[in-house]
Amino acid sequence: MANFENAKWAPGQMRYFLHNKSFDLFEAEAKTYAATRSAYYASFLCFEGIRYYCHRKENGKLELVLVNWDQNLERFRQSMAFNLSREQQSIVPTKEELEDLFINKYFSNPALRPYLEEMADKGVQGYLRPFTLDEEHSMGVSFPHYPAIRAVTCMYDRYLGEPFTGVVIPNLIRAVGANGTGCLKLGVNYSMSIKAIDEAKSITPEAAA
Length: 209
Prior knowledge:
globular, alpha+beta, two-stranded antiparallel sheet, D-amino Acid Aminotransferase, Chain A, domain 1, single chain, 6 helices, seven-stranded antiparallel beta sheet
C-alpha cells in the first residue's frame, strides 16, 4: 500500500458541519467521541487525498498548486452523497463551497502560515486529507445526524507508491464492484484492500496492493 516518508503534520485540524455550514479550527490532535456511528458502523465515513505543492512567487507571496483538484473534489462530493440519505442530498457541499472551505477558510488561516512557509522553503510536497464523520455522541445503525467534514494536512519527503507484484482476489474485487463504490474513497473499500493483500500473501509472499 502507499506510504509517506517523514511526514510532518500541520498545527491545525478543521471541522465543518454540513447542516449549518459552521467552521472551526482545532489543534491538530483534536479528537472525537468514542461512541459514534462512524466509529462502529462506518456511517458517513469517507475521505479524500489531495497532493499539493507550496512555493513563493516573484512577489514573495505563497502559492498553492493542488494536483487533480477538480477531480478529487468531485470524488469527495460523490463519496459524501453515497453516505447520506435521499433527504440529506441537499446538504452535500458544492464544488465551490468545498474550494472556499479548504482554500479560504483552512489553508488561509493564520495558524497554518508558518507551516506553509516552511513547506515552501523546503520544497517538499504536501497532502490534504479531508474526511467525514458523524459528530453525534450516539450509537445506532442509521444515516448520520450531525455529518461533518474534518481535514488535516501534512508535508512529507517522499511518497512511496504501489509495487506491481500481486495476485487477483476475485471475491473481494467483486464486492467493491457490485455496490458501485470502486471509484470512491470509502473506509470499507480500503478494509477490503488490506484483506485482499493478506489473502494474496498466502499465495505470493511478496504481494502488495
